[in-house]
């Protein structure tokens, strides 16, 4: 039987994740992050009594934050989707250090790829959790991240 | 990335105004040390002499949506009490205790400022003259001390007996109210 992890009082959950989630939303949304951050924790608070255990709370709150950010980004993302093309073959995994150098370029990525790249390389979430956050499969999350990385590479090459 | 006090306060206020909070609490300073005070939509539900970890207990009794927010009315009435400008509290109360406890605590609320009552006396008032020991148990687990004045209940021989916040606190409160001469 799986060990039951108690759900902490909301205040503790909030104090533990509020800064990290704000940082994540700033990466995705820039100056619009504050409203999305508040909406994220209000949604978390609404859903909190329905949680069945206290496991995976970090992935859970990132899922909510991603949903809120997607709602923000999607309407203005239509233009960029048509630019999506398949990359040019195998690209090695982007290293964490490389991500730090490239992070400022993620703003040009389509929202799903941006979220996948930032969650994977900026927050080290596993693809299963990213898939859950994006409402897609683990494989789709991996594909979105790698497509995002390819796009970042091209963008990086253009900038240098 | 650090959340600023402004957006933190804005979130807490939004959570309250949307009715998403089961129980809110604050920590207020007082002459007898920091007190955790907590309130539900129905009223004041907890005063604790030991703020650390009390949020877990609040979550078990009132629900997991526990949030820290300013409780200005409670703070003001307590300040007035400790400043000897208030002898009775006007705060609504949310008591979630067993029926016998509730009967005893509601009777306790009628023991006036500056007076004392004995455990046996309180037992007689609730129609259970032999239940002095059980009344002591109720006092010991009083969720809202100070406002429900269990510090006013003492032994038949005049000894202070015991207190959740420590006997020195019980003595201090009775001295504040003029029920005991300062030692």
Walk me through the topology:
The complex is a heterodimer of chains A (160) and B (183).
Chain A: H1 10-29, H2 33-47, H3 57-73, H4 78-81, H5 96-102, H6 111-122, H7 127-134, H8 138-159
Helix pairs in contact in A: 1-2, 1-3, 2-3, 3-6, 3-7, 6-7, 6-8, 7-8
Chain B: H1 5-17, E1 23-28, E2 35-39, E3 44-48, H2 54-62, E4 66-68, H3 72-82, H4 99-108, E5 117-118, H5 119-125, H6 132-140, E6 153-154, H7 167-176
Parallel strand pairs in B: 1-4, 5-6
Antiparallel strand pairs in B: 1-2, 2-3
Helix pairs in contact in B: 5-6
How does this structure look, described?
The complex is a heterodimer of chains A (160) and B (183). In chain A, 66% of the residues lie in helices and 0% in strands. The relative contact order of chain A is 0.13. By secondary structure, chain A is an all-alpha fold. Chain A folds into two domains: 8-74, Orthogonal Bundle (Rna Polymerase Sigma Factor, Chain: A); 90-160, Arc Repressor Mutant, subunit A, CATH 1.10.10. In chain A, helix 1 (10-29) packs antiparallel against helix 2, helix 3 packs across helix 7 (127-134) and helix 6 packs across helix 8 (138-159). Chain A is built from eight helices and no strands. Chain B has two domains: 5-82, Double Stranded RNA Binding Domain (2-Layer Sandwich); 99-176, Orthogonal Bundle (Arc Repressor Mutant, subunit A), CATH 1.10.10. Helices cover 38% and strands 13% of the residues of chain B. Chain B contains seven helices and six strands. In chain B, the strands form two sheets. Chain B has a four-stranded mixed beta sheet. In chain B, a hairpin with a 4-residue loop joins strand 2 (35-39) and strand 3 (44-48). The longest helix of chain B has 13 residues, at 5-17. The mean pLDDT of chain B is 96. Chain A binds chain B through residues 7-12, 14, 18-20, 22-23, 26, 34, 37-38, 41-42, 45-46, 48-49, 51, and chain B through 1-3, 7-8, 10-11, 14-15, 18, 20-22, 55-56, 58-59, 63-68.
